[in-house]
Write a sequence for this structure.
């Protein structure tokens, strides 16, 4: 099966003109979102690999529901913890957050009120698996989720300094201290981006919230893989 080639690869193998033509072709065959990054709209390309993954997730979901009925509750919980650990670890790697499996396992097993690193993140995943999560619909609700997840882990001087979000731009660097991502420049830009409806995100969230237990976590894992593996834009090179 032909592997998806990023626009960055097309640019280096050919030239900017070829890469821009390929980007336009992929936009026409895929879906262009309202989310902008560096002045370029993010688009989504459904590759054969993703279609197979989506089909496999649906098939696995039905199989798991049948098998789960015969598995002891403790074993089901252990497997759910393993899925959540994998998901949080993968998300942290993408975001450049340092964490260990042991820290995440401790966060999952922490008692209410126990101060553990990543505890609130772990609890959110557990609530998601139990169907207790309602997706935020306003900017204030997004900030409430942010405060719940990171409020206790961020130093006062590093917290957002605007009404809801940060006022100035921030950057993500790789291990070689090379800039790999620049966030929205102002709080106004952040608010505009978060207020734009994104069809892909809405559809994935609907699908995610319709799943149950570890199937829900598997759907979340697919969502992470799909949005990070095939989101591509000309400005990336």
């Amino acid at each position: 099966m032909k592997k998806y080639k990023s626009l960055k690869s097309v640019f280096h193998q050919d030239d900017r003109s070829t890469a821009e033509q390929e980007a336009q072709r992929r936009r026409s065959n895929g879906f262009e979102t309202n989310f902008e990054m560096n002045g370029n709209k993010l688009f989504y390309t459904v590759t054969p690999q993703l279609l197979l993954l989506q089909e496999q997730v649906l098939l696995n979901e039905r199989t798991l529901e049948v098998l789960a009925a015969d598995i002891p509750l403790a074993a089901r919980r252990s497997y759910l913890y393993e899925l959540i650990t994998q998901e949080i670890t993968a998300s942290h790697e993408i975001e450049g957050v340092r964490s260990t499996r042991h820290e995440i396992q401790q966060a999952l097993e922490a008692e209410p009120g126990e101060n553990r690193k990543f505890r609130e993140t772990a609890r959110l995943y557990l609530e998601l698996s139990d169907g207790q999560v309602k997706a935020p619909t306003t900017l204030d609700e997004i900030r409430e989720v942010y405060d719940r997840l990171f409020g206790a882990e961020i130093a006062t001087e590093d917290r957002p300094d605007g009404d809801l979000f940060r006022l100035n731009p921030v950057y993500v660097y790789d291990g070689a201290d090379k800039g790999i991502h620049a966030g929205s420049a102002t709080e106004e830009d952040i608010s505009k981006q978060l207020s734009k409806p994104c069809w892909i995100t809405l559809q994935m969230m609907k699908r995610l919230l319709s799943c149950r237990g570890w199937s829900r976590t598997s759907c979340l894992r697919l969502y992470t893989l799909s949005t990070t593996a095939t989101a591509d834009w000309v400005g990336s090179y």
